[in-house]
Amino acid sequence: MRVVAVMNYKGGVGKTTLTANLGAVAAGRGLRVLLLDLDPQTNLTFSFFSIDDWHEQLADNRTIKQWYGGEMPGRDVPLPGLVVSPGRVNRALAGTGGRLDLIASHLGLIDIDLELAALLGGTTTLDGSKRRFLDLHGCLRQALADDHFAEYDLVLIDCAPNFGLVTKTAIVASEQILVPAKADYLSTLGLEYLVGNCAGLVQQFNDFVNHNGGTREHRPIDPGMLGVVFTMVQIYSQDVTTAQRAYIEEVRLNSKVPVLQSRIRNSPHHFGDAGETGVPAMLRANSRDKVVREFDQLAGEVLTALELTPGAPR
Ligand SMILES: Nc1ncnc2c1ncn2[C@@H]1O[C@H](COP(=O)(O)OP(=O)(O)OP(=O)(O)O)[C@@H](O)[C@H]1O
Ligand SMILES: [Mg+2]
């Protein structure tokens, strides 16, 4: 099982669209995919469930909010019990051998970061606070190590556009980080900051693990930067616009983050109605559409990097 966090501090860069569609395309290639919605905006969840269904079936007891809430994440509510199989997308995947499951989010997750921060400060001894730091930041990683999740090939985590504690648990849990970005000044500006903050978190986590002599529960982490994938790229007469090409080149030459070959074009026609059908656009679109080919290329690039290509030993 490979765990990938999809993150960027910048809002509206296509994280959720990418998570839903990359997950769907990977499932269409026969993989068993679990999507984890860690954003209180709950957009990924609403890509698969109507708001009414979410209220009726999930909101009260089957979302990640119940898992993070309480005394300590996961103490009262086991993570495997939160997995749901959205019907419409899985019917669309029939015959592919793949599957797309989801752990839903909740609008109330917005309050959880503060509660977790309070838990983090709740001990007085140095050893106690290091222990608490590891338990809190490592909670999702530990939960995903449950045998139940071994049936998945790929877990994609849709993060909120922030670096709060919930997002940090996703980074600790992930083997790789995928960073969707728009090819514009503000989106590319934040990339170094994001890389620096991730590195700082990894170092602190590992320092604390080593300080504790490598506790049985927590092991050092080493999440890799899978890379930046440029989304909503403007194409005119078959080519990326000059301005955007300059931003992409700037990141490619000067950033510590690798840039993926694949790009996703701006296509309001395909992504304008996100969430209304319960089936990600790439499973509904004509396979000859250019953006479908781009997503297919992206899936190939990501799955190869993760050594999850069809036919590879699982
Ligand atoms: N390739 C694309 N072409 C056109 N529109 C797109 C594309 N990708 C995403 N969008 C649209 O852009 C908007 C933002 O996308 P999305 O919600 O995926 O971004 P996000 O990074 O998850 O945002 P947030 O930070 O708020 O979680 C949505 O309305 C979505 O439908
Ligand atoms: Mg989002």
TrEMBL record:
Q: Give the matching CDD domains.
A: ParAB_family (cd02042)
Residues making up the signal peptide according to the UniProt record: none
Domain (AAA) spans 1-207
* Any one Pfam family match given in the protein's UniProt record, by short name: AAA_31
Query: What's the superkingdom here?
Result: Bacteria
InterPro entries the UniProt entry points to: AAA_dom (IPR025669), DNA_Partitioning_ATPase (IPR050678), P-loop_NTPase (IPR027417)
Spell out the PANTHER family in the cross-references.
Answer: COBYRINIC ACID AC-DIAMIDE SYNTHASE, P-LOOP CONTAINING NUCLEOSIDE TRIPHOSPHATE HYDROLASE
**Protein name listed in UniProt:** ParA family protein
